[in-house]
Specification:
Layout: E1 6-15, E2 23-33, E3 38-42, H1 49-56, E4 64-69, H2 74-79, E5 83-86, H3 98-106, H4 115-122, H5 137-149, E6 155-159, H6 167-182, E7 186-190, H7 194-200, E8 203-208, E9 211-216, H8 218-224, E10 228-233, H9 239-243, E11 248-254, E12 257-262, H10 265-275, E13 279-284, H11 288-301
Parallel strand pairs: 3-7, 3-8, 5-6, 6-7
Antiparallel strand pairs: 1-2, 1-4, 8-9, 10-12, 10-13, 11-12
Helix pairs in contact: 3-4, 4-5, 8-11
C-alpha cells in the first residue's frame, strides 16, 4: 500500500524553548493527507500555518513528534525532488528574464521537466523574454509555480499561491492545480482567501493557536459552525412575533424579508410554517466565513 503524501504525528514546535517566555507555535498536531488530495490550511495570523508548512518542507525541525513526507523525511523528499513549494517571497533574480530563470533552475535537476512545458503549465510562455523585475506580483507567483514543477514533484506546498493575481488568473491557476491533482499530485495550500478554499479545496484543515481544530470537507466544516442561516418573507412581523421564533439570533430586516441564525433550524422552520403567516422560507448552512470565525475563536479560547 502506498504511503500517504504527508503524515504528522504529535508534532510540536517551540521557539525560545529555554527562555522564560517560550513560544509554542505548533501544539501536538496529528494529520494525514493522502495522495492526490487538494487540501487548504486555514487559520488566523499567528495560528501556526506557516510554521507547520516549514516543518513539512524541512526548513525547520520539530521540537517533538515526527513529520513524514511520502514515507521519508522532509529533507530527503526535497533532495529527491519529490516535494516542491511555491512561497510568497524570495528566490527570484530581477535581472534575469523569466525564461532564463526557468532554464537556470532546470539545470540544477538531473531529469527536469522541459522548461517550455513548465512555463506552459504555469501560463507564462508569453513572459519568457520579460525581466523578472518587470513582472507583476501575480506573474512572479506563476513563475515560482513553474519552478516548482521542474522536478515533477509528487507533493506541492503552496503558501498564499495566488497573492497578487486577479480573479481570472486565480481561476486559471486553480484549473491547473486540479489537472495536477488528477495526475496524482498532492496539493497543500495555505490561503487567506476563504472563498478560494471554499471553491477549490476538497478538504480543509483549520488551525488556531498552534493546534488542529477542524479537519473535513467544506460542507463538514460549515456544519461544525452549528447555527444555520434562515431567511423568510414576513411583511408584518412585529418585534414580539420575531422574539417568539425558537432559538433565533442576529435578526435582520430588509424590506419584507427577515434573516436570522438558529442553532435548531428545524424547530425555527416548524414554528414559522405552522404558527405564522411567513412564506418563502430558505434554510442554508453557515458560510465558510461563519465557520472560520466561530471555530478559530473557540480554538483560541481552548
Amino acid at each position: 500500500m502506498n504511503e500517504p503524501a504527508l503524515r504528522l504525528h504529535r508534532v510540536e514546535k517551540t521557539f525560545n524553548a529555554r527562555s522564560a517566555t517560550p513560544v509554542r507555535a505548533v501544539r501536538g498536531i496529528d494529520l494525514e493527507i493522502g495522495r492526490g488530495e487538494i487540501v487548504a490550511f486555514l487559520g488566523p495570523n499567528g495560528a501556526g500555518k506557516t510554521t507547520t508548512l516549514d516543518l513539512v518542507l524541512g526548513l525547520s525541525e520539530p521540537t517533538a513528534g515526527r513529520v513524514e513526507v511520502l514515507g521519508t523525511s522532509p529533507r530527503a523528499a526535497v533532495a529527491a525532488g519529490r516535494i516542491a513549494a511555491v512561497l510568497q517571497t524570495g528566490g527570484l533574480l530581477g535581472d534575469l528574464t523569466v525564461g532564463e530563470t526557468v532554464r537556470m533552475i532546470a539545470s540544477l535537476y538531473p531529469d527536469p521537466l522541459d522548461p517550455r512545458e513548465a512555463m506552459a503549465r504555469a501560463g507564462i510562455e508569453r513572459l519568457a523574454g520579460r525581466r523578472v523585475s518587470k513582472c507583476s506580483g501575480g506573474e512572479q507567483q506563476r513563475l515560482r509555480f513553474a519552478l516548482a514543477l521542474l522536478p515533477e514533484p509528487e507533493l506541492l506546498v503552496l503558501d498564499e499561491p495566488t497573492a497578487g493575481m486577479d480573479v481570472n488568473a486565480r481561476h486559471e491557476f486553480w484549473a491547473t492545480m486540479r489537472d495536477e491533482a488528477r495526475d496524482g499530485r498532492t496539493v497543500v495550500f495555505a490561503t487567506h482567501y476563504l472563498q478560494e478554499a471554499d471553491d477549490f479545496a476538497e478538504r480543509i484543515v483549520m488551525i488556531a493557536d498552534g493546534g488542529l481544530i477542524a479537519d473535513g470537507t467544506t460542507a463538514e466544516i460549515r456544519e461544525l459552525a452549528g447555527a444555520k442561516r434562515i431567511a423568510v418573507r414576513w411583511p408584518d412581523a412585529s418585534d414580539a412575533d420575531l422574539a417568539a421564533i425558537p432559538g433565533a439570533s442576529g435578526l435582520e430586516r430588509s424590506g419584507d424579508r427577515i434573516r436570522f441564525t438558529a442553532a435548531d433550524a428545524d424547530a425555527a422552520a416548524r414554528h414559522l410554517l405552522t404558527a405564522t403567516p411567513a412564506a418563502d422560507l430558505e434554510v442554508r448552512t453557515a458560510s465558510l466565513d461563519d465557520a472560520f470565525t466561530a471555530l478559530t475563536a473557540e480554538g483560541a479560547r481552548a
